[in-house]
Amino acid sequence: MTATTSTPLPRAAERTSAPRPPGRLRAWATRAPLLPALIFMIAVTQLPFVATLVISFFDWNALYPDARSFTGLSNYHEVLTDADLRKSVWTTILLTATVVLASLVIGLGLALLLDRRFRGRGVVRTLLIAPFLLVPVAAALLWKHVLYNPEYGLFNGVLHWVGGDGASQPDWISNTPLLAIELSLIWQWTPFMMLILLAGLQSRDTELIEAARMDGANNWQVFRHLTLPHLRRYLELGALLGSIYIVQNFDAVFTITSGGLGTANLPYTVYQSFYQAHENGLASAAGVLVVIGSIIIATFALRVVSSLFREEVSRA
Amino acid sequence: MSDARVHDIRTGPAPVNGSRPGARPPKVLRVRTRGAGLTLAAWLAGLLFFLPIAWMALTSFHSEEDAATNPPSVAASLTLDGYREFFGAGGGASPWPSLINSFVASTASTLLVLVLALPAAYALSIRPVKKWTDVLFFFLSTKMLPVVAGLLPIYLFAKNTDFLDNIWLLVILYTSMNLPIAVWMMQSFLSEVPVAIIEAAQIDGARLPTILARVVAPIALPGIAATSLICFIFSWNELLFARVLTGVVAQTAPVFLTGFITSQGLFLAKVCAASLVISLPVLAAGFAAQDKLVQGLSLGAVK
């Protein structure tokens, strides 16, 4: 665990050590192809973020542009003490954790089911992947109108079918708004987790498992002591990538509840506070907080990805 | 290895959990029935996950009255009215401009990504510069910067420069959204080109353009195609930028779909038709490149 992210991989070292005419021109010639992409990324992603950071220190409502003034950290103070905003921080955490954990667990189960040869495995895999491929807005509309709707949605339709005219017909979104969003996202993200974990399962060392079975290990023992440790990195990778995407979720919250009923997460709150309330300073402060949260996740993510790199290197 | 040991494996392991051999059917039979059970479970899971989409497809072919009944009408007669309505037959807004905008934004940004990412990936894999992992991690880190963190300045910039409601602003933003993934994926694809082949070609006197066209391209082409597909899918799906930065002229397909958020029961078939038509390019592309999709989404870490 002493290797750091900046340790060059053996293959790279080997390649760069090839004899080559020295000189600055040569060095720039090898770097030049990188520059357009680097400059583009810095200009389009880093500059706006710096601007967000600057705006977050100003009291600035777009409707009163003349009243703009420097206020230091007071926007952050307001974001962190405002009950609604604090709630949206909590909602973001809850939404992300629930969706990531549930889709990981179900995804693991599905990956184990699909990690064996059976008739129609390709078809089942294709059926499973479909939810992930639906355009996110379309998926959210599907859950909102076609499944959850209290009058003609499929869920209540099935209840009606099974229970007859007296069957209860709950209003899913009003009763459990956050759960309604979570379910739709779990449905969308489980296939993604399944595919990552399936890739992990298929990279297992089959000889090792054979050997364990020879020694009399049963299925559970093989799973617990061989499969799960091997999958750890893939589970971590899935959790972290899922978190990065779901922390930022806007489509489902916007479509299913429009942030109402206590379901507004941070991205939706940021969107609303500048797009509807025109509070540029507050929106920026909230945006910076989202970034800080993401950096915490990202720190872990980078470690995981670099550990995957190391594994690849040690295998080579 | 003794015969007894092999025999053991066939008839089941030594009684680890205290089960008596002979109390249950022979292992081969047990495995077969359990195998059938697992196959059934896999099929049921697949069908369950697909059911909402299948139901949406069925609803899209029903008339609006049949679509909005409770209990649901499975056997109602099929019609293309939902699709006709969606394409503007009922006097509603036509989806074509938004579909064309989505197509232009996704295609143009994918091409721009390729133009920027290919040289970068080349510099990072075939002729790696020093500290190349640092550069790779910089690209990755931009992916962790949430979109909302830069949205307001971009909005203000667009407003002050008359770039609001302009499809080319989306092209630039989608390029920045996909470029890190593309650099990572292509770096991993190009790394698969054996250095020995390139060196052999050099010894034979081949110059850079020849090497790129004859040696690198054939090996890297499937990877480049998969990368392009993923960039296209992400651009096609994007909502937040499009919602904030476009209006009437440059509206994209997902923004068009948000018009259905508050629609009531009368338009259920139309909503389903719209969702399916707009998802169709992504569904087709995704089914075609399932493995590469995961690899791209996991930034090349899973192969």
How helical, in percent, are the residues of chain A?
A: over 70%
**Spatial gap, N to C terminus of chain B:** 36 Å
> Low-confidence segments of chain A, ≥5 residues, pLDDT <50?
1-18
- Summarize the main sheet of chain B: none
Count every beta strand of chain B, where a strand is a DSSP E run of 2 or more residues. 0
| Quaternary state of the chains | heterodimer
Q: Can you write the helix and strand succession of chain A as a string?
A: HHHEEHHHHHHHHHHHH
Percent of sequence in beta strands of chain B: under 5%
Q: What global shape of chain A is seen?
A: flat
Describe the structure in your own words:
Chain A has 316 residues and is mainly α. Helix content of chain A is 73%, strand content 1%. A two-stranded antiparallel ribbon of chain A has the order 1-2. The model of chain A is unreliable at 1-18 (pLDDT under 50). Chain B is mainly alpha-helical. Helices cover 70% and strands 0% of the residues of chain B. Chain B has helices spanning 3-11, 27-60, 64-67, 81-86, 96-125, 132-143, 148-160, 167-190, 195-203, 208-237, 240-245, 253-258, 268-288, 290-297. In chain B, 45% of the residues are buried. Residues 1-19 of chain B have low confidence and may be disordered. The interface between A and B is large, with 120 and 113 residues.
